[in-house]
Design the sequence.
């Protein structure tokens, strides 16, 4: 992370959602967090928006404070709640695991009693209801034999996960994992307060067996040990992330008693070692959609010895636990008005509805939004053009890391297309103007950026010996992708009997994509319905947020199960008019109509 | 096993209990079993006691049929029930594990559903109540992907232990293990019928770390890996026994879904890897007495992948699950009249009572009854004198294997002492007569057997260059051992407010010792109260029998838990007059009074 990066950007790179209703402009003051070391000077905006007491405690605004050295940042549960209040949700910290201190009386020859019976007595009135599995009994014997009579138990729903020497009630942690096809994020959470005390992310090393889920499934079908290899890969990453947050925070492994896991259905199956091949062939059914609880050590996941892993439920073969977690985190299922929830990655999953009814689908959005198969496409990494503004004569680029541009990521591509539409260089069918026509529309300066590249007609973003440009073909790929999403929205809306333009209260753009992208541009290209900007919400990593909620609240976990059962999955290929809708949806909106919205 | 050995003896060596109320005399016909090959001709007694139909089916009497080649013998559940009818008990076969066949419908694109949901539907009406742990889901995916739609589930109490391809409902097995300090027995049982279909026994290889429990506990305290080593040892033996019965029967490992385990409290702790050191020091409390259920693979026990192991409950540090199983098998806890249950090994455990109340104790009977610390003491193996009769001039010996005697085992030692008392060569204080006195009492022939050995005054059993004799010191050791048992009976009786001679209905001699020993001799030396012979029952390996009952019947397993809670443990060293009672109990009874009993 270069010095001077704001914490908001750092968090974004780490896929940590920080609420920022004002778009990181230092206006709303909602992106507060605790940062006591390694950060730059307090800014004017912070002095205006934070109380002197808060400032002296180390509270800062993520959009203002910059990283100047190794920084330690605490996103408190309040921060998490804040993020959630955008959806009128609050979450009570009510974890599955709690700790209890007990003093075990010594047995006497007059009344010799088993250690466990002495412990149960010390645990009155709940003593008899607790099941002590063998590892806990072994620990109990070890602790008492070492001469310690104070023991701390990690208890979960009538089951003892650990027996520890002395008073360890202050140490009770869990991990929330969000397994993406590309990136995996792990957050360490204090289960007593709900506070996130560390976070780390890493690439999913399964990628060496294929960038997308289909090629990974293919690998499990061709190599007899493929499933095992991929299972070990993803668990290996989770172990690395755990190690990393342990080092960040000083928390010991044996104090991490629980984990939650979300991911798409394929990541879910590969993580659990469930044969995923049915996800790749008609009728694309998963092995299991129910929520599952397994022991971490059954999976090779290194947490406390008896730690439990709760895997959130899937909806179907194409809509996984990541979407369930996203709905949970954004509260779409709780509200009276209709919302559209869109999570775009390799696929685009869409949920539409309210507390009355929820429907969902998955669209083959294609990897265009992730920068793949685009001439200069790249991931949102240093050197990627993430935002584009076309002025009367010039093209302004915003490049990640403030370096010279190396390529363009999904949000940049959407911006370019939106801007080309706005200035008239691109027509509604998706055709770039020829240079001579363009000259009439936008003048010489901009028109000269149109040229015949080795990849066909192109618009130059950055010239010189290492240029970056967007081709007609790139635009066609984006059209296909946005058309698929848009057709999905149309079909789901019809199923609900609603008109998106009239009846939708909000569009929630989830995932890393949702955080990077300019909502106005998504609207300009017709990816989403034409609604006022105030109704377009970039919700951040909602999957990870849902995983954290399910970790700190058993109620939230139960809610996730209800969500998964409630959402109706619509298979688009079963819809007779899907192809027609898709063809319609590939056209771009009229820029004038969009401009009239504000 | 030499040719010509009766099946009754063969079963005894294998520690398989076969009921034989007539003492293997071919009179009662109760020791019937199925033996269709490798056995000798039908005897007169069998023709008298078995119906022609039974004979043609292969039913034989264990006390009559001899082994002439590799024999295959089936102890049917009827045989087990027969053994139990001596205690008016019958047991309904009602195992924890049952199998169910289901046909899983294929999912369709119109209604794509998870494999598990399809399976649950096929399992209606119980489908929703079954928990499918991860390994079962992995099996389900594998089976369905292989194109098989018929699956057989192994179900236990709402949990699926296995998902198998095709119809395997005919294969459902369990193992009952009886872990002795010296010997371990494993029986393979068909859980559908309750029939035992294979049995094997082996020495407990922990013995290389000490013959008795105290030295094994010592090893766990001196070697940091001692507990682990001993745990692995005993599990290794259990795995060998399983392998052996699998080979005997052709049953596959993955079809053995459950096991029950009994043993004394130290064997229990070592098997489970629980630190046993508290069993060796005041106040001798165990880590746990409750019944436990653990996964076989947690222990390294190789059965079906998700097999469960039910470990029966202990009563206390000195009275373990083997005694609970023995009480279960003999039904002492169910009857109105008072019974004495004695299981003699390295320790002597005693239970006295009825369905009204049960008390128990453990006595340091010492290893004399196992032949240890006796000049020519040996285990009940080939060459051991197991029975002794002193005639007017001669001494008749019964030697295991009909070879020349190499030593004497516990039952032989008790016989010798009983006979020496009867003929007057030993007085009630336990003193052997000198040769000159003896001559007057028993004549020259017998008196000449008394001689001054290198170990002190002795009575010769077998002369020549490799003699076998019993010394005064051996007799003293036996006195201490029987005195401890007898004092225990006295103290428990007082606690119950009963007079053993008047109020006890039966004395049940359990364990291998109970099978070998002549009940009349135990009475003659005052080990047990002076009751008519018809009230002395040799019950065989009641611990193993109880383990089998708990395996084939969940009711029996629940009953074992109730027994363990109901029995009151009396710590003899807490009784102020124990030493006095012990000193009194070392005297032998008056032979004339004993003779008058019949």
Sequence:
């Amino acid at each position: 992370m270069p010095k001077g990066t704001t914490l908001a950007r750092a968090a974004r790179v780490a896929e940590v959602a920080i609420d920022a209703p004002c778009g990181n402009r230092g206006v709303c003051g909602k992106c507060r967090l605790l940062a006591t070391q390694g950060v730059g000077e307090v800014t004017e905006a912070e002095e205006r928006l934070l109380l002197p007491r808060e400032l002296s405690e180390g509270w800062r605004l993520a959009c203002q404070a910059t990283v100047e050295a190794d920084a330690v940042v605490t996103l408190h549960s309040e921060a998490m709640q804040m993020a959630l209040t955008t959806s009128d949700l609050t979450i009570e910290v009510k974890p599955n695991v709690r700790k209890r201190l007990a003093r075990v009386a010594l047995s006497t020859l007059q009344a010799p009693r088993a250690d466990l019976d002495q412990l149960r007595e010390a645990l009155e009135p709940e003593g008899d209801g607790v099941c002590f599995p063998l590892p806990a009994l072994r620990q109990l014997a070890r602790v008492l034999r070492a001469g310690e009579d104070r023991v701390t138990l990690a208890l979960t729903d009538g089951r003892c996960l650990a027996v520890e020497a002395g008073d360890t009630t202050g140490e009770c942690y869990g991990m929330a994992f969000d397994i993406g096809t590309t990136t995996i994020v792990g957050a360490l959470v204090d289960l007593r307060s709900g506070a996130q005390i560390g976070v780390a992310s890493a690439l999913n090393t399964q990628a060496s067996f294929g960038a997308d889920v289909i090629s990974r499934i293919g690998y499990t079908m061709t190599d007899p040990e493929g499933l095992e290899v991929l299972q070990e890969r993803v668990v290996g990453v989770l172990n690395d992330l755990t190690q990393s947050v342990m080092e960040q925070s000083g928390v010991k492994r044996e104090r991490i008693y629980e984990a939650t896991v979300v991911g798409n259905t394929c990541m879910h199956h590969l993580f659990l070692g469930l044969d995923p091949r049915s996800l790749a062939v008609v009728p694309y059914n998963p092995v299991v959609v129910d929520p599952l609880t397994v022991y971490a050590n059954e999976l090779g996941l290194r947490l406390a010895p008896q730690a439990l892993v709760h895997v959130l439920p899937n909806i179907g073969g194409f809509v996984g636990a990541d979407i369930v977690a996203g709905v949970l985190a954004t509260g779409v299922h709780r509200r009276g008005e209709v919302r559209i929830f869109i999570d775009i990655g390799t696929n685009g999953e869409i949920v539409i509805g309210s507390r009355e009814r929820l429907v969902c689908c998955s669209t083959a959005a294609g990897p265009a939004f992730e920068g793949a198969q685009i001439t200069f496409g790249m991931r949102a990494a240093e050197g990627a053009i993430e935002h584009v503004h076309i002025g009367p004569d010039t093209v302004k680029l915003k490049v990640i890391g403030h370096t010279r541009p190396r390529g363009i990521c999904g949000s940049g591509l959407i911006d370019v297309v939106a801007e080309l539409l706005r200035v008239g260089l691109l027509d509604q069918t998706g055709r770039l103007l020829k240079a001579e026509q363009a000259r009439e529309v936008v003048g010489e300066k901009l028109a000269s950026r149109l040229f015949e590249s080795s990849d066909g007609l192109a618009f130059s973003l950055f010239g010189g010996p290492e240029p970056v440009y967007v081709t007609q073909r790139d635009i066609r790929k984006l059209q296909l992708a946005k058309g698929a999403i848009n057709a999905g929205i149309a079909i789901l809306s019809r199923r609900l009997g609603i008109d998106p333009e009239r009846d939708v209260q909000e569009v929630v753009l989830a995932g890393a994509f949702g955080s990077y992208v300019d909502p106005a541009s998504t609207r300009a290209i017709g990816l989403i319905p034409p609604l006022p900007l105030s109704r377009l919400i970039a919700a951040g990593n909602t999957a990870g947020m849902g995983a954290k909620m399910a970790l700190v609240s058993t109620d939230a976990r139960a809610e996730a199960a209800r969500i998964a059962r409630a959402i109706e999955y619509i298979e688009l290929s079963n819809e007779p008019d899907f192809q027609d809708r898709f063809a319609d949806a590939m056209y771009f909106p009229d820029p004038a109509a969009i401009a009239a919205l504000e």
Remarks:
- Chain A has a mean pLDDT of 89.
